[in-house]
Amino acid sequence: MVAFTNHSGGIFKTNTGNINFFSHTPVEDITADNHKVKTAFDGTSGKLQFSALIKDFEFPKALMQEHFNENYMESTKFPKATFSGLIENIDAIKTGENGTYTSNVTGKLTIKDVTKEVSAQGTFTVKNGVVNAKTTFVINPEDYNIEIPKTVAGKISKEIKITVDADYRHAH
Amino acid sequence: MKKPISLLIVLITLGVILYGYRAYNKPHTDVASTEAEETISASAIFQAFDIDDSTAMVKYSDKVISVNGLLLSRDVNNKNEPQIILEGNGYDGFIRCGFKPEYLARLMALQDSTTINLKGICMGMNGSDELDLLADKDVVLSNCTLIE
Q1: Complex confidence, ipTM
Q2: A53 at interface of B, judged by CB pairs closer than 8 A
Q3: Predicted structure pTM score
Q4: Which domains does chain B have, with CATH numbers?
């Protein structure tokens, strides 16, 4: 008897994925979290997609959150960041069997209507039908038309670390 | 004359520092103690975003709004932010409402298919017609509190 249905293939989805971003400078560390990231992947083709609301990134300090949304991200005008890409070796990831797998993920990241190719290695851990995916990659705000005023340039890194952590379940 | 001027400069400097300190450390909006700027049904706010996302963002985003609608389900998989889902447009559009973790027990006690009244900060509509796996839409509220 199997403990859970073998769902290799099919769509895996969550609306509660986590994305954290982290900026480190000698002056200040800045971090923010979004816990309502919508993301899904196709267990057969490897297609992987994300959609995150910019305003839903919560900062420890309200003032930082205001500046992030109003001055840098213009989040009322550009409300979402999206990613559309591919898990390269999806065939090796047995979503119906417990185990840990790694794969490169490549695709297009869109922030403020600017789309750039990104690539990162992801770790996929299957446990009792839930597929946890974790990855970390770095982006440069200037690549996405995010202008940092000179007066605060020393406080915001040119290398923003993005960490993704999402638990996918088979979508019925 | 020198002393009063020096004192004035010191007082102004202290005032600026105090203002800056308070602005830097100002707290996040306390939704529970903030009066909602608008009361709207779940289906009406979903429709507003579905028809014209840009106009709805200007009208509702960043504001504390009160929403009432039918509870479809709870999504408590993310311990950082337990969530409930209200019906926005049948089984195609939803209002996703995020709460602080301490709300978990109260959310678990809610009955499906009952009308829920809550307040939260509107973040916008998630989902995208350009992403075929994420075409279902959620109007998202954060830092929600239940209105008894």
Answers
A1: 0.90
A2: yes
A3: 0.91
A4: 31-146 (2.40.50.140)
